[in-house]
Write a structure and sequence with these properties.
Blueprint: H1 2-13, E1 28-34, E2 43-52, E3 58-64, E4 71-75, E5 81-82, E6 91-95, E7 98-103, E8 107-114, E9 122-134, E10 139-151, H2 160-166, E11 170-171, E12 176-181, E13 184-190, E14 201-204, E15 217-221, E16 224-230, E17 239-244, E18 250-257, E19 265-266, H3 270-290, H4 297-310, H5 314-344, H6 358-375, H7 390-404, H8 409-419, H9 424-447, H10 449-452, H11 461-468, H12 470-515, H13 523-532, H14 534-538, E20 554-555, H15 558-566, E21 571-576, H16 581-591, H17 594-602, E22 606-611, H18 617-625, E23 633-637, E24 645-646, H19 653-664
Parallel strand pairs: 11-18, 12-18, 20-22, 21-22
Antiparallel strand pairs: 1-2, 2-8, 3-7, 4-9, 5-8, 6-7, 9-10, 12-13, 13-16, 14-17, 15-16, 15-19, 17-18, 21-23, 23-24
Helix pairs in contact: 3-8, 3-9, 4-7, 4-12, 5-7, 5-9, 6-12, 8-9, 12-13, 17-19
Length: about 675
């Protein structure tokens, strides 16, 4: 009743402007767009793009105590049908003690269009929208029409849809339960303990059940998030809602009458700090372990030489270590900041996103070539050559941060996933923690005299070590070149080799000038270095070599997983990338071994490969839904199980063989 009275009041206030229902200036911009062309017999995503005027707002599907949900009347070609409207997560607005669920800025409401199997030419899509648009003082009911002539067969793809989909609440596969307890509605939402929750709020889709403006309370058990909602009237049957976890992530769920667990810990303001502390410590530990990973080993040459040159001198060692630490922290922090900006722009991206771009891989390849030549003594570059000073330490630390990103997944998956759900300041602190962990051994050697005294004295061995360590650096360059080929095909590898040849010529010429006591830079050296950058402008995806996978499995999609599970088959999904060294180790040591493949085949298991070598928004969104910011990720769907089992990030053949054998029984 309160909601009805509030709506009637809004209409009374709107009487002078009511004529706008059919004419006059509108306060809401409207557009209808499609993600891509129509494919006969398939579906295409449509978006109703809503742009309220400054100071005005539109309403969510359940507007709250006041307002009116939008209604859409479609006019579609014969055989076509539009699916339900899917709204982004709203914000809350309280006016005169009335709770409103609103959108104050531009937003998009999505719907799936089913294309007729015999569609051809152009499909005329029309829709009439009736909606309410309001300020804090006045509401105006408006009506608008949108038109879209959708081509069938081929056409461009609208990249904005990835950003719009990222703002939708993710559907929760497992049902919840609810029960009435006095004047409260208790709703138990299935949620693993590993999923971050900071400042939750529940938006009820089912209308007239809760008192929207009253306070909500939340508690948590190991596998449930329980909402305590002020009750207006008991739900007649089911209850649906959207739970905003307060981390930039929301879940849409459905609940049926049932038992709600007692007890649990209260979810409040301290939860954010606990999550931040967990993620930061996890990042530091992950960075510490990264020092042992092969993908970081090539730059250990620079660290070892810097420490050796510092010798037992305390001042030089500490200055070098502090420079290295600052470089590592700035490096990981900068990568994290760019990642946050990319995601804020609506793109689906995860950790090591930069290695999904062939231009970045080419840059990494050229950097490895340059350091290899430096370690071989063909030219001298003090900043990156291992000199024991803060400038060299900073450059080495920044390089370590850049090279270490693809190896961070096995040790940082949970921490990075949590970081991407935290506010920006907290996320940057977690990324900085990775750099601190990476630099921690160096700091200990510099600031603990007993450890520093164990370092060998400088001598001729340093030159020999420098040349020996050029070998793994050269192998690192070859690995980057292979990845460049996988991403861009033959054209990319040719551009990479041309760039490397130009770079080598420039550095060799500079080295000869250094040997002669002349400045390294000259007009020919600068010209060659400028030519090196030219391929960075033209390199692309080429023949898309990476899209071709071996016989280990088919390309992953959520639809394939659902189809295999519906047929009662076990499913094994592994998320990998060509730049992920630990992924490749697991594939060689476990997944691609003949006994494992035979066991999976005997169990009639569906093996699916989610290849993240190139940016893939679908994979990124799925990783986000699992609270993961990095790979590898291995999932085993046992027949009949409600949720997949997340396997360890270091696999053994026995893990998969045992599960495949159990699935046959």
């Amino acid at each position: 009743m309160l909601r009805l009275l509030a709506f009637l009041l809004a209409l009374v206030l709107a009487v002078p402007a009511a004529a706008q229902l059919g004419s006059g200036p509108r306060h809401m911009g409207l557009a209808l767009v499609a993600e891509g062309p129509a494919i006969p017999g398939q579906e295409v995503e449509l978006a109703l793009v809503m742009v309220p005027e400054d100071g005005w707002h539109g309403y969510w599907e359940n507007p709250g105590d006041a307002g009116k949900p939008m209604s859409v009347a479609w006019q579609l070609p014969p055989g076509a049908s539009a699916g339900p409207l899917r709204y982004p997560v709203p914000t809350r607005l309280i006016v005169a003690d009335l709770m409103n669920h609103v959108f104050k800025g531009p937003y998009a409401v999505l719907s799936r269009l089913r294309v007729p199997a015999d569609a051809s030419g152009v499909l005329p899509i029309r829709a009439t929208l009736d909606y309410l648009v309001c300020t804090d003082q006045v509401c105006v009911p408006e009506r608008g029409s949108v038109v879209l002539d959708l081509p069938v067969g081929s056409g461009p793809t609208d990249l904005r849809f990835d950003g719009w989909r990222a703002k939708l609440p993710q559907p929760l596969g497992s049902p919840g339960t609810f029960a009435v307890a006095g004047d409260r509605l208790q709703v138990a939402i299935p949620l693993p303990e590993s999923v971050a929750v900071t400042a939750p709020y529940l938006y009820a889709i089912t209308g007239d059940v809760v008192r929207y403006a009253d306070a909500q309370a939340f508690r948590r058990t190991p596998d449930r998030l329980i909402a305590e909602l002020p009750l207006a009237q008991a739900p007649a049957a089911g209850f649906e809602g959207v739970i905003d976890l307060g981390t930039g992530r929301a879940l849409r769920f459905a609940a049926a009458p049932g038992a709600v667990p007692e007890g649990g810990s209260t979810v409040g303001g301290g939860e954010t700090w606990r999550l931040l502390l967990f993620a930061f410590l996890g990042a530091v530990a992950g960075g510490l372990i990264l020092n042992l990973m092969p993908c970081v080993f090539p730059i250990l040459a620079l660290k070892a030489l810097a420490l050796a040159r510092a010798g037992g001198e305390e001042r030089e060692a500490r200055a070098d270590a502090l420079g290295y630490t600052l470089g590592a922290i700035v490096g990981t922090g900068a990568l994290g900041a760019v990642l946050l900006l990319v995601r804020a722009g609506g793109s689906a991206a995860g950790w090591a996103f930069q290695l999904q771009d062939p231009r970045t891989v080419l840059l990494l390849f050229l950097l490895a070539v340059a350091i290899t030549l430096n370690l071989l003594g063909l030219f001298k570059l003090p900043v990156l050559g291992g000199e024991g000073n803060p400038r060299s330490g900073f450059a080495t630390g920044a390089l370590a941060a850049f090279v270490a990103t693809p190896c961070a997944g096995p040790f940082m998956g949970a921490a990075l996933g949590t970081a991407l759900l935290l506010p920006a300041a907290g996320a940057l602190l977690v990324f900085a923690g990775l750099g601190l962990g990476l630099a921690l051994p160096f700091l200990l050697l510099a600031f603990v005299p007993s450890l520093r005294k164990r370092l060998p004295r400088p001598g001729p061995w340093m030159a020999r070590l420098q040349r020996i360590l050029a070998v793994p650096m050269a192998l690192s360059a070859l690995a980057a070149l292979w990845l460049l080929w996988r991403q861009g095909g033959t054209s990319a590898i040719l551009l990479g080799l041309v760039s490397a040849a130009l770079l080598a010529a420039a550095l060799l010429f500079a080295g000869r000038r250094q040997d002669a006591g002349q400045p390294a830079l000259s007009a020919p050296v600068v010209a060659l270095l400028l030519l090196v950058a030219v391929p960075l402008l033209g390199i692309g995806r080429g023949e898309m070599a990476v899209t071709q996978r071996g016989s280990a499995g088919e390309a992953w999609s959520e639809a394939k997983v659902a189809a295999a599970r519906a047929a009662g088959r076990p499913v094994f999904v592994y998320f990998t990338a060509d730049w992920c060294l630990s992924c490749k180790v697991n594939e060689a040591s476990t997944i691609d071994r003949e006994p494992v493949r035979d066991a999976l085949k005997a169990a009639n298991a569906e093996v699916l490969v989610a290849d993240w070598t190139n940016a893939d928004p679908a994979i990124t969104r799925f990783l986000d839904s699992r609270g993961r910011g990095a790979i590898p990720l291995y999932l085993w769907y046992a027949p009949g199980a409600a949720e997949p089992e997340e396997l360890p990030q270091v696999l053994t053949p026995a893990m998969l063989i045992e599960r495949a054998t159990a699935a046959r029984r």
